[in-house]
Specification:
Distance between the termini of chain B: 41 Å
Order of helices and strands of chain B: EEEEEEEEEEE
Oligomer: heterodimer
Helix content of chain A: under 10%
Largest sheet of chain B: 6 strands, mixed
Structural class of chain B: mainly beta
Radius of gyration of chain B: 13 Å
Structural class of chain A: mainly beta
Number of helices of chain B: 0
Largest interface: A-B, 26 and 26 residues
Largest sheet of chain A: 7 strands, mixed
Radius of gyration of chain A: 14 Å
Number of helices of chain A: 0
Strand content of chain A: over 45%
Shape of chain A: globular
Distance between the termini of chain A: 37 Å
Chain lengths: 116, 113
């Protein structure tokens, strides 16, 4: 069964450093998402991406964040200058064309980001 | 702003029991509602999606209902098993067609053998 994959599974970085989190969505999906979950808190939406552009973003997704689909398979989240409060589990998700019956979002296993 | 609440926060039941998890949302203008399962330290596994026009969806021992007008959904698990132990999350997306999911904080379920 197709699945969303994410690398790395765990990333440790120093405050102020740049990190890139990578995702490979399900191959025939057209909508891509990033969410994060700070330890003990709710899963929060960051950004959605469709047709090579951001379709929606939350207040969390400020100028330090960016997303890119550099080729036909990868979808990346870049955090330019990490802060301690960026420590969280970051989940990538993808969904089909968006018809109501096929709008299920499928999540990857997550990347745990630890900022020291 | 949409708020999603899940009750109870934690639940412990003996194996074989039928159980109901509750989810409520403040804005009834939703596009769809999804139930997920999250195992400790792991990703989210989609269990069921209910479109805003539907009343319920079933998958195996799981049945999810939706009452959009009252802002409520329930997840019914029949004949619970120890392997059902996990955190169950409810999430809704807005009716404007934006697909961002707003999540509840989850119900942590423990099924005792």
């Amino acid at each position: 069964e197709p699945e969303v994959t994410q690398t790395p599974s765990h990333q440790v970085t120093q405050m102020g450093q740049e990190v890139i989190l990578r995702c490979v969505p399900i191959s025939n999906h057209l909508y891509f998402y990033w969410y994060r979950q700070i330890l003990g808190q709710k899963v929060e939406f960051l950004v959605s991406f469709y047709n090579n552009e951001i379709s929606e973003k939350s207040e969390i997704f400020d100028d330090q964040f960016s997303v890119e689909r550099p080729d036909g398979s990868n979808f990346t989240l870049k955090i330019r200058s990490t802060k301690l409060e960026d420590s969280a589990m970051y989940f990538c998700a993808s969904s089909d064309r968006g018809r109501p019956s096929t709008d299920t979002q499928y999540f990857g296993p997550g990347t745990r980001l630890t900022v020291l | 702003k949409q708020e999603v609440t899940q009750i109870p926060a934690a639940l412990s039941v003996p194996e074989g029991e039928n159980l109901v998890l509750n989810c409520s949302f403040t804005d009834s203008a939703i596009y769809n509602l999804q139930w997920f399962r999250q195992d400790p330290g792991k990703g989210l596994t989609s269990l069921l999606l209910i479109q805003s026009s539907q009343r319920e969806q079933t998958s195996g021992r799981l049945n999810a209902s939706l009452d959009k007008s009252s802002g409520r959904s329930t997840l019914y698990i029949a004949a619970s098993q120890p392997g059902d132990s996990a955190t169950y999350l409810c999430a809704v997306s807005r009716a404007t067609g934006r697909r961002a999911l707003t999540f509840g904080s989850g119900t942590r379920l423990q099924v005792q053998p």
